[in-house]
Amino acid sequence: MRRQRQQHEQVARMSDLKQWLLRKNLANLEAVLVENEIDLDVLFDLTDEDFREIGLSLGARKRLRAAIDAGEPPDEAQAATPAKAGVREAERRHLTTLFVDMVGSTALSARFDPEDISEVLTRYQNTVAGIVTRYKGHVAKYMGDGILCYFGWPVAHEDDAKRAARSGLDIIRALREIRAPDGEAISARAGAATGLVVVGDLIGEGAAQEEAVIGDTPNLAARLQALAEPGQVVVADATKLLIQDKFDVEALGRFEIKGMEGAVPAWRIAGERSLESRFEESALDTVLPMIGRNNELALVMERWSRACTGEGQVTVLLGEAGIGKSRLTRAVIDEIRTQDHYRVNYHCSPYHTASSFYPAIRQLTNAMGLLETDTAGQKIEKLKANLRAADPRIIAELLQIDAPGEYGPLELSPNQVRNRIMEETSNEVRALAREKPVLVVVEDAHWSDPSTLAMLESCLDKIAGERVMILITARPTFSHRFGGHPIVSKLTLNRLGSDQTADVLAKITGGKTLPGELIAEIISRTDGVPLFIEELTKTIIESGDLRETEDAYELTGPISHVSIPSTLHDSLMARIDRLQPIKEIAQMAACIGRSFDRPALAKIACVDDSMLDDALAQLEHSELIFRRGAQSEASYVFKHALVRDVAYESLLKRRRQEIHHRLVDAFEADPSAPPELSAHHATEAGLTEKAVLLWAEAATNAQARPAYVEAANHLRSALDQAAKLPKLAHWREKELALLVQLAQIHIAKDGYASVEASQAFAHALERIDATENAELRVAIYYGTWIAPYIGNDLRRAFDLVSRLVSDMASEPDPIPRLISRRMRAATLISMGRSPEAFEDLRQAYELYQSAEIVDFSSKFAQDPGVQIWCYTHLAQWVCGDEEGALATADRALARARELKHANTICYAGLHDTTLSIWTGNVARARDVNEEMRKLSNDYDMSLWKNYVAIHDAVIACMSDEKDAPARLDAALEEYKAKGCWLWVTLYLAEQAKALLRAGHPESAEAALRRAFREQEKTGESWTLAELHRIAGEIRCAGNDIEGAETAFNEALSIAKFQGAKSLEARALRSADLLRRA
């Protein structure tokens, strides 16, 4: 029933005046009636005199009167008019208010007879109303001798602020002709203000009912009026900015105004400028799409000519929003339309900046002719039939076509799939180029998702020798890494000059000439912004103020009466207002986005198919939108992004939310819709709880691909929404879980010492008391611990983990207890307290065996059992059990491989290689490091890549390769740049030994000093005995026997204190060799 009622109401809104005129064969009268704000109810009350006043010819008046007199059945009339005559839906509007107040009315009332004053007051009100109406303003309210007027509602005009200013000046002049009973001229003050308001809600009842304006603007206008001297018009700062190119204004200063924050500037209108001065000094600063780019077009076409000869090109068109990038692109397309070529269009969307390869997915779906109704098998057959060179299996994976009977699972890692997608899309374009030249258009690249940007960057070298040109449009904020490539050229679009503006005008009018003074006015008012020129000129042509002849347009009245917009907002709002019968369809489409599909719009429009198609056809005919594809499955795009913005922002927030709510329902019912799309609309609908869950789902999906950048962006959106929720226990806990997930994504992407991960864990730790969930608490402690552990503060790491062990001691769940024990054991080993770690490791392993869950890797980055064995074998070796250490290391690596979890295998590999460094087993270290190298590259894990580079350099040091120390320095710099210091002392020890063996004791001494400094800073003491032993070896090389003996004794003392029997044995051997020498 609710949907039926909505449909009935929508039908009523869409079918009033236009449908009645169509039925009566009077459609040619629609424009003049709409321009005069005449709807069907008002029409039936008008007289012949009214028709004459609005300019209808005798024949038109007769035909219209006959149609009215014929009457219409009540039911039909009801279907053709809004449910309540005269009631408009409230809207958000950019409104200029004018408040006029007669000076000295109280004194006049005291001096003269009330009947005489009533006559003066009536003349005053009629004069004001007549002037305001002449400038198409709206008299909103009479308040005794005060009159409130609106410009910009109920119908917007292109220059509403200027209309208000002219009205104010004309009113001041006209009132001089009105005399008080004693013959003295009356005077008035006027104030004007411009701003965003909500207008149209009805308040009051019966005769007291009125359409209210909610916002500061009317109050500010009234207050500014009070500042004016008699005979003055005073305007607010926002109004002054809109009129200063046409009026001389003088600053009155800043004033404290009740209800306004801070001092408010006020300006007096001194008078209207001459046409010449306005032309010279006009400084409109509006930025919107442009046309008329002959020089720029020539430059792009020159690049296209090169591309056609096999010199691949990339041209980046940069410019602010609305400056003309899309128009220039269309001009290029038109220019080469007769040439034999292929065109590939990638359109980046502001709502899909976090959806991997979104432009490619949409382009391929369209190019392959894939339909929602196709089966998976049909889609696969279309791919096979249409793809030139790309592997259908990879494209099917990209398009998420599930056809297990056709293709088996891809034996590729997610990162390999991502790389193959980039490779195969590039291969497809190159294959097309072997047939004929290819133009690849990438629209709005500033909204590209990271994967699409990576795809563009990866193809530059591949197309350098191909017949391909990539034409990219983007705003100046577009960030990329291919600007220095030799095939890339950048073209920044600037504003048009006067000659180019004249060319634009000629195209708009179809070659018909405009009056010279009108052209000068347009040039002055538009300041070289092509869309402003275009929209302004079309508005003037459609306004009725011009008469069209065979080869020209002629003014029907003075130029001052021509509807010329002062701002783009007003111009676009005026065009939307002219579409009153279908305006709401445009607004609904705007809620979907700049681009929208007909099926999606049909789900929320609540009108039948024929009415929707009619509305879309009218929007297309008015050039408000462009269509792509067949009608039933068509997709549309607003001609300009800011057209869409104006339509969207004119809706009340509550109305927007209703539409976004419907979109959420529609997309959630569509299994092919990505959750981030539903999440966006849930966010805009104010469905905060649903938005949190949908953003989290989108993040999990992205994390699984893996698309870490997109996943992190989704989680930030989820957290933004979660912050708005009541601080109830389950939502506070959900917020903690989101923070942990965000941190873990950054760890996987950037490493344990990621700044973003540390910040997320720090925020979670501040809120940890919000949850009793032991698993979540330990995850937060783990994340908070890992940064100082792997960073440069083992002492703080130990304090944190000791708090965790204590916190988890009474926890019945074994998982948190085993994790906390394993963490403390790791910290103890690096601090040089290996014997103490065995008890924690023993208890952790017992808990691991008793736990019911087998796979921990998805929650804690690596399997805890493997982690336990890794630290066990390191502690075993330090404490002198080398045979046991090797056996445990084999066990850890085998278990990691069995799990087939890349992060766990690399973790085991790190510790295994570390053990090999201690034992000097170069061959084993090299083999395990190669395994780490493959996995870290396949999954694009930057920290593990860094460890591989460090291991390469350390192994080279152990093998006495000449450049090994320098390579290690470079690898360690990159490592520390990530915030990592763990085991740097071990790596520097190997560097010092290599330099000493190479005969460079001074360099070895320098490396050792660095190691000691790092040890002092970080508290990493497990290598301290070894560092002193190496110091002794350096002293021996320098024949400092006493110094060597002291160093060896210090090494022995530390090793004994730490229970480090392997290091004690090393120190004893070195000391024994010294004594024998």
Describe the structure.
This protein has 1077 residues and is an alpha/beta fold. The protein has 6 domains: 2-80, DNA polymerase, domain 1 (Orthogonal Bundle), CATH 1.10.150.50; 91-273, Alpha-Beta Plaits (2-Layer Sandwich); 294-492, P-loop containing nucleotide triphosphate hydrolases (Rossmann fold), CATH 3.40.50; 498-575; 580-685, Orthogonal Bundle (Arc Repressor Mutant, subunit A); 726-853, Serine Threonine Protein Phosphatase 5, Tetratricopeptide repeat, CATH 1.25.40.10. 59% of the residues lie in helices and 11% in strands. It has 51 helices and 18 strands. Strands 1, 2, 3, 4, 5, 6, 7 and 8 form an 8-stranded mixed sheet that branches. A 5-stranded parallel sheet has the order 10-11-12-9-13, with helices on both faces. Strands 16-18-17 form a 3-stranded antiparallel sheet. Helix 9 (114-134) runs antiparallel to helix 10 (160-174), helix 31 (675-685) packs antiparallel against helix 32 and helix 41 runs parallel beside helix 43. The longest helix has 22 residues, at 414-435. The protein starts with a helix and ends with a helix. Pfam families: AAA_16 (PF13191), Guanylate_cyc (PF00211), SAM_1 (PF00536). GO terms for molecular function: adenylate cyclase activity; ATP binding. Keywords: ATP-binding, Nucleotide-binding. Residues 96-225 form the Guanylate cyclase domain. It comes from Stappia sediminis.
